[in-house]
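Quick one, probably user error.
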């Protein structure tokens, strides 16, 4: 797409620093807006068709992504000079933006730019929202939908995954979202710049990062503008504990672990019976048949193209975890490397070998979490919402609700393409695999697992992986992700049930809603949404769909991204983006673990990248999850029951926020059964919407 060519022209001549990521973030909207007329004109003459089968789409995903990346590079020389932004002009923009961002964000300063009509940038819906059966002017309403369909089209993917908006209206909405995100991130850009300067000025205090403890000093009274209270309690002091490592899989990285079922699964590697019994009291087979064995698999990463920009490595591990028969704790049993050497590590190994094995696991897990979540959350809600724009009237209450939930949704893929998946971008300078491999990896997950709509319903997914309501083995004693997310999910479902019930008195009314039925047809047709319901003929089905959209755009996303990176899941020394030596080919060969960790410049680079995603400054504003449905512009056109439901949701979230804020370690040094205090899903801290 043309705006990506323009961005590539800025980036290609030189490898940009992490600080430049913020510069690019601020100039994206300017560049994009400059080429909108050209793109809109091009869209009218181009075909917006997508291939007719999901299987065909899946098989073409990787090649399409590569072609797009190649196209960006080869076309950069063709971008007109007017589309380019000079470094001096960008610096000036950053400077002025930083000054503007100094003012505190208040609830009055934040509004959803897409609340109301999407027919044009300036028009607005008058009167109350209504379903089509209640429409006083049905012909006018139908004509408006037709106009939207003509001007909002399915374009080629951006940053992989499904189709991306095209057409005059599509381009306008993308531009609006980028501008909104740009304005909102000015404050973080200013904070990160200040933190970076301070951290680099204090280089002497890190002792040359000669020990693991030296890495914790990187956060000692540092990065305070971005993270005023520092990383979460326990994450820098208890990282050598096996319980911390294993419980990370049940809190801020819960999407890969699954329970093995001996009736249908197999053991992918063996652990010596004597070793397993000494660690767990049971053999591997006994753990397997008793339903106590869990598995996590990152072997697919061994097939990825490795980076050519520096010496960085991974290990493509797979691993076993288990429920201890005495304590009931969820603990690690074994980690196998599948790059470098093929070694099986257990807690019976030397301290350094076992700690390195856990670090190697975290490298793989962090790669998975960041690129899989793009497919699981951003891309799924994006394509479902695109289908809604093309089929639902702007006066439809479901469309209005989706407008609210999809805040800034179209800004993310362009930023991923230009800042993450580009040469010289975040992946290229910090991760073990090539920048285009990250896009291909994410796209592969979208088409083969994470893009499935119904299969990834919150409770369905956890049940399918044996994490809740398992038919075999004991229940997990503690499952913090489920414990917190289920409170929010339940409150969302209560709101959606009230909302749907207030507009649809019976299932027959849902079935008679021609726009809802057109949305279903569009999702299963032109949009090619994977695993979308074949029919929405009941109120409960519509509630399911809307609750899932709310879940994906909030709790599902913010568990693994946003504030979590700099505060927990990417903290050093335990969670590096990459290894800085190849995985060992034999045990007892590690003389100093720090040689596998990033040197100072790369460590600071990692923290800077993670800071880019932080949105802690939104805490306490109306951009938080508590205010998900609390939008005055939207609610004034909703019915009384929906207004009441929105107030009920906010009250429930405020109460839950107080509970999360009050968490501390118990007498055993644990919180939710973990040696760290997890507060990522605080509704008055995390944003609503799939923000970066």
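Nope, works fine. Designed sequence:
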């Amino acid at each position: 797409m043309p705006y990506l060519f323009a961005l590539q022209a800025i980036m290609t001549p030189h490898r940009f620093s992490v600080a430049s990521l913020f510069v690019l973030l601020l100039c994206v909207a300017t560049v994009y807006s400059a080429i909108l007329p050209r793109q809109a004109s091009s869209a009218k003459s181009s075909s917006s068709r997508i291939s007719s089968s999901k299987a065909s789409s899946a098989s073409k995903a990787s090649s399409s992504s590569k072609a797009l990346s190649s196209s960006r590079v080869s076309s950069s020389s063709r971008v007109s000079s007017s589309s380019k932004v000079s470094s001096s002009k960008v610096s000036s923009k950053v400077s002025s933006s930083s000054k503007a961002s100094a003012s505190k964000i208040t609830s009055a300063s934040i509004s959803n730019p897409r609340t109301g009509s999407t027919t044009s940038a300036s028009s607005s819906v008058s009167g109350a929202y209504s379903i089509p059966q209640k429409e006083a002017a049905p012909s006018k309403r139908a004509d408006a939908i037709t106009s939207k369909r003509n001007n909002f089209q399915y374009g080629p993917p951006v940053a992989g995954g499904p189709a991306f908006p095209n057409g005059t209206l599509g381009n306008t909405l993308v531009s609006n979202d980028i501008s909104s995100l740009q304005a909102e991130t000015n404050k973080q850009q200013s904070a990160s710049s200040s933190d970076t300067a301070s951290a680099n000025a204090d280089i002497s205090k890190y002792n040359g990062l000669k020990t693991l403890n030296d890495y914790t000093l990187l956060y000692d009274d540092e990065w305070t503008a971005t993270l005023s209270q520092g990383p979460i309690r326990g994450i820098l002091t208890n990282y050598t504990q096996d319980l911390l490592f294993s419980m990370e899989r049940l809190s801020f990285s819960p999407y890969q672990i699954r329970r093995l079922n001996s009736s249908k699964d197999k053991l992918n590697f063996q652990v010596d019976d004597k070793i397993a019994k000494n660690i767990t009291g049971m053999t591997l087979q006994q753990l397997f048949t008793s339903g106590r064995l869990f598995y996590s698999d990152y072997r697919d990463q061994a097939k990825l193209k490795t980076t050519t920009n520096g010496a960085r490595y991974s290990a493509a591990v797979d691993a076993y975890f288990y429920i201890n028969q005495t304590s009931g704790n969820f603990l690690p049993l074994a980690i196998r490397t599948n790059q470098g050497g093929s070694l099986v590590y257990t807690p019976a190994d030397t301290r350094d070998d076992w700690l390195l094995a856990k670090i190697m696991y975290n490298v793989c897990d962090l790669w998975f979490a960041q690129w899989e979540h793009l497919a699981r959350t951003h891309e799924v809600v994006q394509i479902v919402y695109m289908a809604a724009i093309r089929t639902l009237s702007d006066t439809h209450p479901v469309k209005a609700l989706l407008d609210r939930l999809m805040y800034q949704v179209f800004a993310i893929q362009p930023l991923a393409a230009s800042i993450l998946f580009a040469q010289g971008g975040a992946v290229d300078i910090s991760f073990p695999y090539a920048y285009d491999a990250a896009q291909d990896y994410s796209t592969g997950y979208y088409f083969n697992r994470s893009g499935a709509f119904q299969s990834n319903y919150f409770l369905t997914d956890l049940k399918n992986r044996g994490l809740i309501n398992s038919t075999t083995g004991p229940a997990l004693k503690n499952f913090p992700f489920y414990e917190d997310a289920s409170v929010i999910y339940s409150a969302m479902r209560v709101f959606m049930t009230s909302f749907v019930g207030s507009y649809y008195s019976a299932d027959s009314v849902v079935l008679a809603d021609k726009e809802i039925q057109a949305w279903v047809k569009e999702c299963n047709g032109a949009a090619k949404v994977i695993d979308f319901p074949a029919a929405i003929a009941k109120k409960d089905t519509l509630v399911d769909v809307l609750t899932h959209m709310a879940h994906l755009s909030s709790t599902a996303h913010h568990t693994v991204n946003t504030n979590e990176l700099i505060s927990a899941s990417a903290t050093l020394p335990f969670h590096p983006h990459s290894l800085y030596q190849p995985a060992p080919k034999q045990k007892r060969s590690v003389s100093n673990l720090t040689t596998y960790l990033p040197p100072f410049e790369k460590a600071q680079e990692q923290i800077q990248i993670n800071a880019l995603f932080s949105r802690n400054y939104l805490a306490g504003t109306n951009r938080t999850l508590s205010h998900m449905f609390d939008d005055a512009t939207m609610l004034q056109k909703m019915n009384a029951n929906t207004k009441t439901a929105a107030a009920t949701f906010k009250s429930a979230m405020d109460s839950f926020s107080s509970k999360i804020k009050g968490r501390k370690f118990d007498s055993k040094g644990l919180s939710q059964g973990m040696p760290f205090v997890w507060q990522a899903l605080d509704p008055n801290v995390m944003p609503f919407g799939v923000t970066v």
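The mean pLDDT is 86.
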